[in-house]
Amino acid sequence: MFRTKILILTDHSVVNMSPRTEEQLASLKDSKRKLIFDAALNAFSERGYHGATVGLIAEMAGISKGLMYSYFKSKEDLLDELLVYGLTRMGEFLSFVPKEGISTPAEFEAALRGMIGLYTAETNFWRLYIIIVLQKNTTPKFEKLMEEMIQGYLGIFITYFKHRGVPNPLAEAMMLGSVLDGIMFDLMVAPDMYPVEDVIKLTIKKFA
Amino acid sequence: MFRTKILILTDHSVVNMSPRTEEQLASLKDSKRKLIFDAALNAFSERGYHGATVGLIAEMAGISKGLMYSYFKSKEDLLDELLVYGLTRMGEFLSFVPKEGISTPAEFEAALRGMIGLYTAETNFWRLYIIIVLQKNTTPKFEKLMEEMIQGYLGIFITYFKHRGVPNPLAEAMMLGSVLDGIMFDLMVAPDMYPVEDVIKLTIKKFA
Amino acid sequence: MFRTKILILTDHSVVNMSPRTEEQLASLKDSKRKLIFDAALNAFSERGYHGATVGLIAEMAGISKGLMYSYFKSKEDLLDELLVYGLTRMGEFLSFVPKEGISTPAEFEAALRGMIGLYTAETNFWRLYIIIVLQKNTTPKFEKLMEEMIQGYLGIFITYFKHRGVPNPLAEAMMLGSVLDGIMFDLMVAPDMYPVEDVIKLTIKKFA
Amino acid sequence: MFRTKILILTDHSVVNMSPRTEEQLASLKDSKRKLIFDAALNAFSERGYHGATVGLIAEMAGISKGLMYSYFKSKEDLLDELLVYGLTRMGEFLSFVPKEGISTPAEFEAALRGMIGLYTAETNFWRLYIIIVLQKNTTPKFEKLMEEMIQGYLGIFITYFKHRGVPNPLAEAMMLGSVLDGIMFDLMVAPDMYPVEDVIKLTIKKFA
DNA sequence: TATGAATGAGATTTCATTCAT
DNA sequence: AATGAATGAAATCTCATTCAT
After folding, report:
1. Which of B124, C51, D159, D191 could form a disulfide with B45 if both were Cys (CB 3.0 to 4.6 A apart)?
2. What DSSP string runs through B100-140?
3. What is the rounded average pLDDT for all residues in chain C?
4. Do C and B share at least 3 CB pairs under 8 Å?
C-alpha cells in the first residue's frame, strides 16, 4: 500500500474508519450526485483532472453543465468530494478483514484476495487515486483519510508478521504493501494478460 | 515491471534497443532541446500533460514560448519526443544487465539494485511514465519502445528463474515485475520513509 | 434636485402626482409583492442591477426564485415596477410641502428639513435611484414620473425665490437643487460624519 | 466633495499627492494599457461594473478578450487599477490650486472653476467614481487615495473660510463640498440644460 | 535565432428563466 | 400558490499557437 507518513499502529482500530453512516451513503444511490460522481470518476481516471472537462463530465452524467454547479462548488471541489467519497466507499467494502486482525495463513489469504478483488472491481477509482497521489497538492481531507486507511492495513500486516515470528515485520509489511501496489498497477495497465491467480499463490507462498 | 501486451521473448536481444547512436544523444547535451526536455519532464511529471502549460515549460527552460515551436511542432509533439528520449536514455543507463543475461544470485542482486537505483535517480521520468501509461492514447512510437523494453527484462528474469529451477518462471517473473513496480510507486509517493535497503534484502531472499 | 429635461412649471400641481390611490398602496402592505420590493430595493441599491441576482433577491425576500416570476415578468420588470413604486411612495411622504406652495422662510425651512429627512429615511431608494439615473436606458414610465416630481419641486422653489425678490430665481432654484443633491449624495457615502444640522442652518441662511 | 472619514488637515500638503511620476504616466500614452483603460472607463461608467462585459471592453479597445488578461489579472483588477489611475490623473490636473492654498476671492473663484471644469472634462471618470463609491467594497488602495484627495481640498477650503472670518468654517467647507458634489451630479445627469455659469456666480456670491 | 504580443478556440463558471411536482 | 432542479446562453478566464519584429 502507498504511504505518505508512517505512524505504525499495532492495534487494528482503523479498519472501521468510515465517518459516514450507511444511510448517508445509501441516500446517494441513484441520486444525481451519484450520477455525477460516476461520470467524473470515469472521466478523471481516463483523462486526468485537467484532461477531463466539466462539459464532458456533465455529458457523461446526462445533465447540463450548469447543474453540476448546484451540486459542486467547482471542478476542484468535485474532485475533492469524489476522492473522499471513493475512499469512504472503499472502506465500506473492506469487510473481509476481521475486526480482531488476521493471524492465520487462511485469514491472510482472504485479506489478500479481498484487496486484489477490490483492485479489479474498482479499477477506475484506483487509477484516479494513483494519478492524484503522484501529483502534488492533494487535499488535506483526502490525505488524512488515506493515511488512516494505509496505516490501518500496514498495522494489521505488521501484527500478522510479528505473530508469525518473521524477523523484520515492518520491512515485510512494507514489501507486501509494494507487492499489492505493484499488482494494482499492473492490473490497471494490462488486466487481461496478468496471471493474477498465479501471482496470488506465489504471494501467499512467499509471505503467509 | 509494467506490461501492455505480453509476447514472451526468451532471448536477451532487447537491452540495447536504442536506434539512436550515442553521438546523437551527445549532440543533445547542453542544447536548447535538452533544456526544453528537462523543463517539460519536470512540468509534465509534476502537473500532468494538461496541467503543464507551454508557457510554464518555456519559463522553466529559460526560453520564450515562441522558440519552443522551432524545436517542437506542438505540445503533443514535445510529449512524444520527450517520452521516446527518456526511454532511450533509460536504455543507456541499463548497463548493469550483462549482455548474456543473469544467472547467479549475485547478478540478480546487481540487476535488482541497478533498477531500483534508476527509480530513485530518475523519479521524474518514471512519474511521467506512469501518468502517461495510465491514460489512454499513448503514442504508438512510445508504446512500441516500452513493450520492447519490458519484454526484454521479463525475458531475462524468466530465463533466470528457469535456470534456477523455479516451478512457474513466468509467474515468478511477473510477480517480481509487480514488486519492482510497487517499489517504484512507493518510492515516488514517499521516498523518505521507505526502507529500501531492507526491502531489497527481502526481495533477494524471496526471489534470488 | 436632479433633472433630466426641464420644463418649468410654475404652478404647484405636481405634489400629488401619484395616480395610485392609497388603497392600492395599502393593499401592498405585507403582501409578497412588498416583500420582494423590499428585498430588491436592498439588493439593487447595494450591488447595482446586474450585481444583484434574482436568487439573492428571492432569498432576501424569503421566497423561492420561482415564485418571483408569478409576481414579475422578469428581473427587468421587477426593477421597473420597483422604481415606479418607490417614486410613488416618495410622493406619498412629501406631505410637508403645502398644496399652495411655500412662501415664508419658515415654510422653506420645513420643506428643506422634510426633504433631507427623506434622504436619511429612504437611503436605499435614493441610492438605487442615483445608480439608475446615471446609467442609460431608464424606463420611460420611470423617467416620466421623475420629471414630474423634479419639475414640481423646482417650480415650487422658483416661485418662492420670485416671491422673495431674488434676482435670478431659476439659477437660485437650480443651485438649491444641486445643494440638495450634494447633501443626499454625501449622506449616502458617509452618513455618520456629515454635520447635517449645521449644513441645514447654513443652507437656510444662504437661501431662505 | 465626498468624504468617507474626516481628518481635518489645515495645511495644504495634499495637493501634490500623486505617487506616480509624470514619466510613468507619459509611458502610458498610446500604450495598449491606456486603450483598455479608456474603453473600460467608458464601459463601466455607462453600464456599471457588472453591466460592462469584458467582451465589450475588449471590443471597444479594439483588442481580443484574451489580450486583456495579459494586461490585467482579472476584470476586478482592471477596475481597481482604472480607479487608481483615474484618481492619480485627476490629481495631475488639479494644478489650479496654488501650493500655498487659497486666500483671496479671486483664487477661490479660480479653484471653483477649475474643479467644475474637471467635472465637465472628465464626466466619465466621475460617473464611474460615483457608481463605485455608492456600492460597497471599494478597494483599499482606491479608498486611501480618495481620502487623501478629499481631505486635501476640504482642508484648503477650511483654511480659506477661517481666513475670511466665517463663523463655522468646517460646516461652510462641507456645505461647499456638497454644492460641488451636487453640481457634479447634475452635470452628469443633464449637462445640456444646467446653467453652470449662473450657478458658479451664485456660488461665489454665497461662499467667496 | 529569439521574443512575447496577440489571437481565438475552448474551458470554467454564473444566472435569468422555465417547469415538473 | 410554491418550490428548486434544470437548462442554456452568456460571462469570465486560460492557453496552445502564430506572427510581426
Report:
1. B124
2. T---SHHHHHHHHHHHHHHHHHTHHHHHHHHHHHHSS---H
3. 84
4. no
